[in-house]
Amino acid sequence: MKLWAGRFSKEVDGRVNDFNSSISFDSRMYRQDIAGSIAHATMLGEQNIIAPSESETIIKGLKSILSDLDSGKLAFDPEAEDIHMFIEAELTTRIGDAGKRLHTARSRNDQVALDIRLYLREAAEGLISQVKELIHSLCNQAEQHTETVMPGYTHLQRAQPITFGHHLMAYCQMLLRDISRLEDAKNRMNVMPLGSCALAGTTYPLNRERVAELLGFSSVTMNSLDGVSDRDFCIELAGAISILMMHLSRLSEEIILWCSWEFKFIELDDAFATGSSIMPQKKNPDITELVRGKTGRVYGDLNTLLTMMKGLPLAYNKDMQEDKEAVFDAVDTASLCLKTMIPMIDTMKPIPANMRWAAAKGFINATDAADYLARKGVPFRDAYKITGTLVAQCIEKDTTLEELPLEDYKALCVEFEEDIYQAISLETCVKGRTVVGGPAPERVKEQIAAVRAAISEE
Fold first, then answer.
1. How far apart, in whole angstroms, are the C-alpha atoms of residue 339 and residue 183?
2. In the structure, what pLDDT confidence band is assigned to residue 4 with cuts at 50, 70 and 90?
3. Can you identify the CATH homologous superfamily of domain 5-104?
4. Which of 321, 335, 362 is nearest to 129 (CA)?
5. How far is CA 389 from CA 187, 394, 426, in A?
6. Cα gap 107→227, rounded to integer Å
7. Above 70 in pLDDT, residue 11?
8. Helix (H) or strand (E) run with residue 149 in it
9. d(CA 89, CA 99)
10. Pairing of strands 191-192, 219-220
11. 3-state class of 152 per DSSP?
12. Deepest of 2, 379, 447, 457, by most Cβ within 10 A of its Cβ?
């Protein structure tokens, strides 16, 4: 029987029941629903809103349901409307009328608002832990390649020399910001809505702060209408996850390029690549391609939440049932991507010789040649033009700045001396960039140490 059956003169059409049901996806919140109910029952007993003996009976019954669900002894009833009604019905079956008292001073509106906050708080913590693991993997690779020269790019054109370690640490900075956003989202959702009831609170003398204390919330919601209708925390978490996925997608795109024969900067472990059904030579970076594709899926989840909420009047509306599938999918997708990318990064094998060759052929030390002249008093704009002319000559002669004869240098500017070759050495170019945040090996090592310290403090 429906909780609200007294108002209706006939049964709801079965098709409506199927359409209305959420047990298929909100059943994953059973632990949170039971935890919230135990805290609520504890408070009801302490406030003498229900008899303390009934509170104890309810709590004992809820714990037995939790144990049976965890063990698999109890299965979810697909005919139940949602996880809340399933647990309440099972509780009443086990302990009798005392089970019906659990819903005193509570609505499913504030109950679901509580459950999803509890669930997403744990989900955010899980994602933060996984992002830290990925940062560790990137730091481990970067430590091995603080002096591995590679070309840095703009417009996907070789630009200036950096190191592979420096490049990887850029992603660590992105991921640190992702952790910060996830932490912020978690902190803002850590407000307890139970006690808002359907929309207007209750006349019962609730101790909402006691429930918040039992459940580890930092405070309680201060407006009952907002308490049941707020889903900002779902949107904010999905937004943080979307930015995280954007970063994972950018890294994936680079890995896809790097492991192609056109770059061949890295080799993926066989356990984290796939082959072709028809071309035996292929080794495909399917993991990174899927991450890149799934990023759009998460963006869709965020857009679903924003669109769902944009036209809703206060307070609760059934549209808001759509929040769970979208935010659960965003969490699940990001977690799966992280779970797969971490060991892929751990096991990928950089190929320093190929990176060095690409750097040498890209004239990425041209800026350093211009700086060489500028340090000798040549105006930088003139030095820039002279160096550009040298690059054009190298292209015409199919050579590099390092291999160009000194007389060719002097023909354009008498300030060039034998020390130009040391000045434009790729290793010199990298090691000379000692500005904080730069690619010099000692600076990259500082970056690694700072990042490791940052995630240890979290």
1. 19
2. very low
3. Fumarase/aspartase (N-terminal domain) (1.10.275.10)
4. 335
5. 57, 9, 20
6. 12
7. no
8. strand 149-154
9. 8
10. parallel
11. strand
12. 447
Q: How far apart are CA 433 and CA 79, in angstroms?
A: 66
Amino acid identity of residue 277, one-letter, is S
Give the residue carrying structure tokens 């991450």: 291
Report the half-sphere exposure of 230 (CA within 13 A, side-chain side).
Answer: 21
> Helices in 162-231 by DSSP H: which ranges?
164-189, 208-215, 224-229
Token pair in block for residue 173: 């900075």
| CA distances for 133 relative to 161, 181, 237, 264, angstroms | 28, 17, 20, 26
The answer to whether 87 touches 37, Cβ cutoff 8 Å, is yes
Q: What does the radius of gyration of the chain's CA atoms come to, in whole angstroms?
A: 30
User: What positions carry a catalytic annotation?
Assistant: 155, 276
Tokens 């199927």 belong to 18
pLDDT of 254-297, one tens digit each?
A: 999 999 999 999 999 999 887 766 676 768 899 999 999 999 99
Q: Give the global pTM.
A: 0.91
Residue ranges of the chain that CATH labels 1.20.200.10: 109-186+224-357
In the chain, CATH 1.10.40.30 covers 362-457
Dihedral of the CA atoms 375, 381, 383, 384 (nearest 10)?
A: 120
Three-class DSSP category at 161: strand
Fold held by 109-186+224-357: Fumarase C; Chain A, domain 2 (1.20.200)
Cα 383 off chain centre by: 45
User: Which H or E run includes 107?
Assistant: none
8 A C-beta contact, residue 131 and residue 175: yes
Q: Which CATH number fits domain 362-457: 1.10.1670.10, 1.10.10.10, 1.10.40.30, 3.40.50.410?
A: 1.10.40.30
Residues of the chain with CATH 1.10.275.10: 5-104
